Amino acid sequence: MKRPMISMGAAFVALTSSFLGLPSAQAYTYGVVEDAGFAACLNTYLNQGATAAITDVQLEALTAPVGCANQSIASINGAEFLTGITSLALINNQISDVTPLGGLTNLTGLFLSGNRIHDVSPLAGLTSLTELTLWINAITDLSPLDGIPLTSDPMGYQAAHQYWFDSPSVSVGTYALPVVPRKGDPLASVTVQNSVGGTMGPTATTVTVDLAAGTITYDAPGTYAVSWMSVASAANGGNCSGPINGSPGGACFGFQGAYLITVTPAPPVTVTFDPQGGTVVPTTASTTAGGTVTLPVAPTKFGSVFAGWFTQPAGAGTAFTASTPVPGSLTVYAFWSTPSTADSSVVLPPVKASTTGGAARLSTGTDAYSLRITLEDGTGAPLTGLAGALSPQVPTGVKAGPIVDNGDGTYSMAVTSATPGIYQVGVMLGSTQIGTLASVNFIGADVSVPSLSVGAMQTIKGLGFLPGEQVAVTVHSTPLNLGTFTADQSGVVTVPSFVIPADFTTGAHSADFVGVTSGKVTVPFSVVSVASGPATTISTGGSLMSARAQVGSAAGMLLAVLGVYLGLGVVKSRRLA
Q: For 275, which of 99, 280, 481, 539 could close a Cys bridge (C-beta 3.0–4.6 Å)?
């Protein structure tokens, strides 16, 4: 009856240990120790035969430093029970898995040089460590050790090729650097040399390292030796001094190492273009792995707009462009969109122009309105990449610039005019108008006599203003307020002819037309001291009669009126007589 009770007791202890998160005593040939070399070493500290079984209780009772160097140890299962020791040396063995050491939080010194360790993440919790050697291992990522202070003996040298007995192989292309230093000790350099017969040769000219981006690019096949050094290592010249705890090269404050790598030619790959019911030529493109391809001319499909190539049908997956690296052969799919003209629009942002101070633009041919076009599909989702499918809808006299894709479902188009007037402008998607037309007005002014003398008659007019808009007209330099006038249905502001006042000095003058909404346009003229010759018209658009002709006409009309008046006087006198 006792044996079953003992078995139940053992089972209860094992279950309790498991439930509490404590290490369980796994039964191996050597008790809780799996490896013969490790067992033989530990048994020397337990004062028993090399092959004697070891219990977890025995290992937990050890407190003196333990050193098991050069024992051909491959497994350190059982080391998890060495919870009482503060120093452990396992130098020059064949250890690759250090997981059993993860709970030995009393360790202040750990010496693991000359093994096959690649992953040090199990050591991340050993925050009491002040000494740690990892010489000659396959470690390329030390970031798990960021929280360990290491005040007296730092990492040491890692020679990764000691672990990679058969060199790893990659194809020509760009890869992430397989080197991650400790926080606060970044990489200072990565150098690449051609490897000749397993030894380092001249610097490789076909390999590019980008430390900022953390990448290494192999442009040609070959075997390369890649070496790296951290800032702390570089500060010491990469040298080590004085043997410490059996480390073969002494103390190194930093992270350095090397590995051999074989690079093979990039394999050929093919990209197949599936037009999804449309037509595309060509249907395939070839490159090498990691390269890019030239896209075919945009496919066509009746009633639809091509919206790009994607790695999955119906616009799913990721967009595929001419700059997308091709990792291997793949098929990409045309994404077709049917824009909803009801949900799309063309608007004129309410931006005042610096040239006019108002909503209008000058009719100079360079003062532009910027229209904003919004494209959406039937669900209200913005549509990008369709600038090529849009075309300007502008009348004669208006010039449209290129349509620019803003990348957010909106597009911009500039319009200008050298002819004053009010115009309706818009955008077409294929043969369909987008939204409603936008109204733009370009203002200008005419002066009939560009150069005239004091006392001469001048005629000016404004052009391109909004119908019914109130426009104030002032002549400068000596201000002469001609009044406020209303633009007609064609946007023309007609101003009665006026005489150049006697107090106008000779030289440059101008007339300002200032519309309440449109803003200001100015037309220049000059005053000379003598009567001018035949008149010509100067304007910012439009044309007028010569002032001299208007003066003659006005004089004739004055004489005619006077004659009529005198005639009526004679008749009246006669009637009275």
A: 280
